[in-house]
Every structure is written in structure tokens, then in C-alpha cells.
Amino acid sequence: MYLHEALESKDGKFFPMIGIIKGRAFRTKKLQRFGYVKLTSNNDNILCKKGESFPSHEFHYWDSTDIGSDFTAEKASRSTKYACIHANETMYAGYPHLYFYGNINCAMNFVIKCESYWSKNGQNRTNKTS
Predict the structure, then answer these.
(1) Residue 127 CA to chain centroid, in angstroms?
(2) DSSP string, 43-65
(3) Which listed residue, of 12, 58, 81, 83, carries a Cα 20 to 30 Å from 73's Cα?
(4) Cα–chain-centroid distance for residue 60?
(5) Cα Rg for the chain, rounded, in angstroms?
(6) Residue 46 in contact with residue 89, Cβ under 8 Å?
């Protein structure tokens, strides 16, 4: 929610946030998209390749004017499908809670991406402060 352009407070006022995700996060009166889903990637990203999937679940009282479209969520209990999550080579941002044991490769890919990012960017920052 912090990555959105704005976040709604309890009294309905919107406050500016980071703005990476174009949209607003807001509180709702009931649970949104509650339950277990299978997430399938629509593109290569920090967790997996296009077409790979893993189990997840959602339960939250918040929503967004832009929940993303880089994954497709499919409810196990019915034929409901919907787009969700913002994901690319350096970011995973979405409401579904990840279950890495459902596809351990996703966790390994995340660590590999972090390590690669650190080797390209982090060491330069560390050397500057030494």
C-alpha cells in the first residue's frame, strides 16, 4: 500500500505515498478476495518465469484502484479468475500472501535476484561508507 500514489486514513483522508503504483489504497468494510488461490505468472519476474504458479491466500480489509495484472489468481473452490499483483525483475507487490513451500523455486529465485542485485549495486554503496 505504501507503494501507491495515496493511502486512505481511517477518517477517509488520502495521504501521498511513494507513487510507484499508480492508484490509491483504501480501506473497505468487509474482507476482499478472501480465500485460497493459485497464482500464475503472466510474465518473468523476481519470483518466477511466465506460466509458473504457486499457491497463495488472501484475507484483507484493504483494496486498491490498481491491484496489478502481472499474475492471474484462480480460486480453487470455483472458477473465479482475476488479475492481480505488480511484479517485475525487482519487485513483487500485491495482496496475496505467498506460500513459498508451494513452489520452493520461487523462494530460491527471490534469493538469487537479491544476491544479483546486491552484487551489482550493494557493494558500491557499502564501499562508499567504509
Answers:
(1) 31
(2) S--SS--TT-EEEEEEEEEEEES
(3) 12
(4) 14
(5) 17
(6) yes
Length of the chain: 130
For residue 82, the surrounding DSSP H or E stretch is strand 81-84
pLDDT tens for each residue of 34-62: 889 999 999 999 999 999 999 999 888 88
Phi, psi values for residue 105, rounded to 5°: -60, -30
Task: Give the Cα separation of 73 and 89 in Å (integer).
Answer: 20
Report pTM.
0.85
Grid coordinates given for 68: 496489478
Question: Can you tell me the distance from the alpha carbon of 71 to that of 44, in angstroms, rounded to the nearest whole number?
Answer: 10
